Amino acid sequence: MAEQAPVALNHCITLPDELEPQPWTIRGRQPGPRGKLAVQITRYPGARKIIVTGRNPQAVAQAGGDAAICLNDDDTSLREQLAAQFANSIDVVVDYLWGTSAVNRLMAAAKTKSTLRYVQVGSLSGGEITLPGAFLRSAPIQLMGSRIGSLTLSQLLTATQSLFADAVPGQFSIACTPLPLNNVADVWDTDDSKKRSVFIIR
């Protein structure tokens, strides 16, 4: 909680002048708004088509994608819907859920022989999956993770610097509710995942 801390210079990045300084904050635990932010970041450099998947039909429909698939459907229906999208050439999947939904996406991609980079970011639906070995031999799919450890420090700093540089011209925004830190115990379990709770350190 210190206002200042010693950090090696090569671990630092320069924020663009246009980014307004914000109070020291601690982010709340609900991850829902990340999907909408991911859509904005993906669209800014020119993604031709963005397909949003999720468990909340209303949130999926309002996430800003070009197509939406609700993961509450049965596995057979889901794989058919996903295969139809993969057949039109999907380059990258960013997966915040993992679990059963990841298996459905991967199997649908393998069925269409799609060349795909599958990026595992979170595990909200489960930490493990069961995947047939034949799957990895049947389609040109690259599995990778995105978190500290999957990138070198240099790569992480470069990517973060690029993201901050794009934040203002790309008008990236995330829905949030600012709250005083001394209210954390009262509001911690009230977040409905539609907005990010941001606790402000005064």
TrEMBL record:
All residue ranges annotated as the Alcohol dehydrogenase-like C-terminal domain in the record: 35-157
The protein, known as: Alcohol dehydrogenase-like C-terminal domain-containing protein
Entries under InterPro entries matching the protein: ADH-like_C (IPR013149), NAD(P)-bd_dom_sf (IPR036291)
Species, as recorded: Phytobacter ursingii
